[in-house]
What we know:
- This protein is mostly helical.
- It contains 14 helices and no strands.
- The longest helix is centred in the N-terminal third of the chain and has 33 residues, at 2-34.
- The chain is globular, with a radius of gyration of 19 Å.
Amino acid sequence: MPAARVRKPRIMTTALFNILPFFGVVLIGWIAATRGVLTAQGLAGLNGFVFNVSLPPLLFLVMQKAPASAGEALWYSLAYGAVTLPLYFFALYLGRSLFKLGSGDRVVYAHLAVNGNTGFLGIPLALAVLGEEGVLPTVLILTFDIIFVMSLTTILLEQSRESEGIGQALKRAFLNPIILGVAGGLLWGVIGIGMFDTPLPEPITRTLEILGSAAAPAALFAVGATLGFNRLDRRIGEIGSLSLIKLIIHPVFVGLALAYIAPQTPDMWIAAALLTAAMPSSNNAVLFASVYNTYEVRASATVLVSTAISLITYTYFTTLVTPLAATP
């Protein structure tokens, strides 16, 4: 028993030391923003580079190696969606009934509750904690979030101000650079590699690798800089409830859903799902709030607070999934 007691703190310390450098880059980004080293315009350019130029090549290279079994990915995504979408609608209800939020405010509240910072924070941390094998299941969740969660948020926000509808929101989702990178990689893997056994030419592969390798450090720095430009809000009840749902309830229920809906899921994929669901609230919620002029200050505060708390909660979940990730 004493050995068992010693082992868990050691695993947690190791996990913390592995994660701290990545949050260190986030901290440097925060310092750069708060000290005026980086301007808001500079951050916009950096975000554009990560989202439009660097992440899509990385996802293309990962997805071209995706396993041929679509059934595994389908059940995995269904299990994640079976938790995420009901939790989204529960957060909508909570925002209206408990916090008396208006139509636009409660949509952003619900988005903050279930949409994690997967693209900018989750993928770099998946690479660090789980290795390249952990990126594919992380990308599947990111794809689900973009197609379903972000589209749902867009549709509901558009309805709240009675402008464009479902068709435009879905078009924007499917033309998202992340989705194009994922779809392009899958298509090349099935046709180019699967059917014709023709990998990408080496110069093209190397170019994509160089671009993709910039995604992790740039994205982490951008997360910190975004937090530096955000503002705090003292509505503890709303921010606290969102942090609780996103950082604890969401990952726990995703783990339970995988156990019951997709029991054949590989251990590495379970580990990736738990860690991805444990991501803090996403920066894109702040973008939604800004574009639709609703819930802006509280969205910024939630992203800031949940990111700070996630250093502790993410470290804990990392200690839980370490044995899974080590399973051959």
